[in-house]
Design brief:
eight-stranded parallel β-barrel, alpha/beta, globular, about 45% helix, TIM Barrel
Length: about 290
């Protein structure tokens, strides 16, 4: 199975009081589907998952599934650093009708590789959903080893990994050692083309909120053998990719959307809005 090439790690829209805004969510989804998103990841890091309650996540999963109505895959961010809680939230996601679950490496409590394997195995055995692992050591401290990813890929419903290690050699080894239908997605927008070039499926993207169509064109050119043209687009997009991370994510991408006329509200504390200097820098990049 494939979830597509460009999966957008969707921001969570808030109203003026900081509550989840389902009308803005509908508007955002329609924007993303018209602008290059092959699939949506809901309540992941970019969706400000640490500040969303279980009830809010459940409501989001259900509403996004209803709005999308089968047009693209919906992947629920249902991971946690507590195995029992992750199992419970994954069941909520499954009941909401999502197409898959994305499970982040447990953060803060620093399990070893055996602990990581048991964590993901127990969740996988508790659900019929396809599972995408999410390895992001910059946020979790612990990094899942290549050996652990390969071992987990042998579990039937663990079908993909979002790799945000930045380690192309490690990703290449995962591709080489797993079955052909196990998918490797870049977790870093700036590595989209390099990861696809070594055999990856695509990217779970933040920047696709703004440049999804351009990213799709880059991959289309690459797939048609127009390597130099694809590389030229890659080089053009890199400054914008870095621009949406000039402040802790998703602060800048939410501001970028507002600059494009798509209101998704602000961010929840402890995140704070962009400074005037950051906002001016971002606006210049988008122009």
């Amino acid at each position: 199975m494939s979830f597509g090439k460009i999966l957008t790690a969707m921001v969570t829209p808030f109203d003026e009081e900081g509550s989840v805004d389902l009308k803005k969510t509908e508007n955002l989804i329609e924007h993303l589907l018209q602008n290059g998103s092959d699939g949506l990841v809901v309540a992941g890091t970019t969706g400000e998952s640490p500040t969303l309650s279980v009830e809010e996540k459940g409501t989001l999963f259900k509403r996004v599934v209803e709005i999308v109505n089968g047009r693209v895959p919906v992947i629920a961010g249902s991971g946690s650093n507590d195995t029992k809680s992750a199992i419970a939230l994954t069941k909520v996601a499954e009941e909401a009708g999502v197409d898959a679950s994305m499970l982040v490496v447990p953060y803060y409590n620093k399990p070893n590789q055996r602990g990581l394997y048991e964590h993901f195995k127990q969740i996988a055995h508790s659900t019929s959903l396809p599972i995408m692992l999410y390895n992001v050591p910059s946020r979790t401290v612990v990094s899942m080893s290549v050996d652990t990813v390969v071992k987990l890929s042998e579990i039937d419903n663990i079908v993909a990994v979002k790799d945000a290690t930045g380690d192309l050699d490690g990703m290449a080894e995962i591709m080489e050692r797993t079955k052909p239908d196990f998918l490797v997605y870049s977790g870093d927008d700036n590595l989209t083309l390099p990861v696809v070039a070594i055999g990856g499926e695509g990217v779970v993207s933040v920047a696709s909120h703004i440049i999804g169509n351009e990213m799709q064109e880059m991959l289309r050119l690459f797939e048609h053998g127009k390597i130099k043209e694809a590389a030229k687009i890659h080089r053009k997009l890199v400054p914008i990719v870095h621009g949406v991370f000039i402040a802790p994510s998703p602060t800048a991408v939410k501001a970028s959307l507002k600059m494009r006329g798509i209101d998704v509200g602000g961010v929840r504390a402890p995140l704070v809005p962009l400074t005037m200097e950051e906002s001016n820098e971002l606006s210049a990049l988008l122009r």
